[in-house]
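Example S7 (structure tokens).
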């Protein structure tokens, strides 16, 4: 069985701005239309199972700084 994975990124108002179920696909700091978000703090939840079957549930923040 492949690993199960879900990554959800939220803005500061708690709105989902990115969802991925592909552990190899990260977030590029853009919305679904490809427009970069303004600098700021975003919150994430990453959860699933590893290839070895170990569960994980990680939460934290990401500071987005566009250059």
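Recovered sequence:
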């Amino acid at each position: 069985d492949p690993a199960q994975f879900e990554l959800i990124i939220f803005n500061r108002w708690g709105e989902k701005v990115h969802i991925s179920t592909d552990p190899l696909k990260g977030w590029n700091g853009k919305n679904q239309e490809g427009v970069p978000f303004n600098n700021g703090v975003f919150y994430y939840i990453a959860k699933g199972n590893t290839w070895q079957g170990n569960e994980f549930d990680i939460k934290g923040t990401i500071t987005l700084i566009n250059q």
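Notes on this example. The chain is about 0% helix and 50% strand.
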